[in-house]
Design brief:
Length: 74
């Protein structure tokens, strides 16, 4: 990926990324780029926002670790 002088990120066309917006989450010395869906689906959840964020970050870390592991094998 490239970052220009105005800190814009350019994603190569070879990477499947189909969102107009994304969330950038710090992850150690790296960042996670999470696409934001265009249509929001509302759900009724009993967990707090804090708990949901914690679970989402935990799941994202697990997924990144799995993908990194697969990439090292490949």
């Amino acid at each position: 990926m490239k970052v220009d002088s105005q800190r814009r990120i350019y994603i190569p066309k070879g990477i499947a990324f189909k969102a107009a917006k994304a969330i950038i989450v710090p992850y150690g010395g790296s960042f996670l780029l999470i696409p934001v869906p265009e249509k929001v689906v509302e759900i009724d959840v009993k967990a707090s926002v804090h708990e949901l964020k914690r679970k989402a970050e935990e799941r994202a870390r697990e997924e990144v670790a799995l993908r990194a592991e697969r990439g090292m094998r490949g």
